Amino acid sequence: MKFIDLRLPKDIDKSFIVFKEVGQFFPCPWHYHPEYELVLVTKSTGRRMVGDNIGYFNEGDLVFMGSLLPHVWVNDQKFIKGEAGYLAEAIVIHFTEDFLGANILEIPEMEAFKKFLLLSNRGIEIKGKGREDINAIMVKMPSMSGLKRLSSLLSIFDILSSSVEFDLLASPGFIETKHNKESERLNKIIEYVMQNFDENINLSMAASMMNMGVTTFCNFFKDNYRMTFVEYINTVRIGHACKLLFEKDQTIAQVAYECGYNSLANFNRQFKKYKRLNPSEYKRMLYV
Fold first, then answer.
1. Over residues 216-242, mean pLDDT
2. C-beta neighbour count of 236 within 10 angstroms
3. Domains (ranges, CATH) in the chain?
4. Can you give the pTM of this predicted structure?
C-alpha cells in the first residue's frame, strides 16, 4: 500500500487552509503532507486508516494528525455506489508549524499546545466535550475570514491544549518519534524497546537504565507519553504485528511469536484491545 505526498493550495491572503469537502464520497487516496490536519466528518460513515490504525467514523468524528502522518478516509460502499441518499461532507483544516511565524511555538502561551502537537505524530481522535466544542467552531469556519477565522483556530488550539479525552491512533513504532527536551532523556529506553520488544522487557531493568526508581520512572514515562510503560511496549508490539500482517504471508501464530508474545490468546486479546479488531479481521480490511 503506497502513500503519496498530497498538497492543498493555500489562498495568498490566508495563513492556513479551511475547506469543506462535499461529494458522493471522499476522494483522497492514502496520502501524507507536511501540514498538520484536523478532520471533522459532518456527514457520512466509513472507516479511516491513520498510520497503522484502522477505525470507524460517522458524523461528528474528529481527528487531529501531525506532519507527514499517512492517512485515508474510506466511505462505506453505499456512498461509493451512490446509494446513500445524501452526500459525504467533512471540514478540514491544514496549517504548518510556522504559519504565524518561525518562533510562534516558543512563546509562553503556546507551551501547552506545543506538548499536544508532540503527540499528534501518531494521530489523535478527539472525544468528549472537547470534540463537541471544537465541532461547534469548525462548522462555522468555512464562511469566516480575517481575524475571526484566525481567532477561531486559536480557540481550537486552546481546547486541544487542555483536552484529556482522546485516543492516540498509530502505534509508536509506525513513525519516527519527534523528541522534546524531556523525551530526549527517554531516547535510550525507547531505542531499547524498539530493538528488544520481541523479548521479555522488565520494568525494573528499564527504570535502572534511566537511573530511576520504578515509581519515578513510571510517572516520568506516563507524563511524557500519556500511557504506562507496559502499554507502550504493547503498542509497539501490536504496531509491528500490523506491519507483518500487511507485508508478509505468515500465520497469526507466527506473527504473534515474532512480536514477543508467547501466548496466541494474549496476542489476540492485546491486538483487539489496541486495534478494536482481531488480527484476522485487520488483515482482511487492509485489502478491501
1. 84
2. 22
3. 4-168 (2.60.120.280), 178-286 (1.10.10.60)
4. 0.66
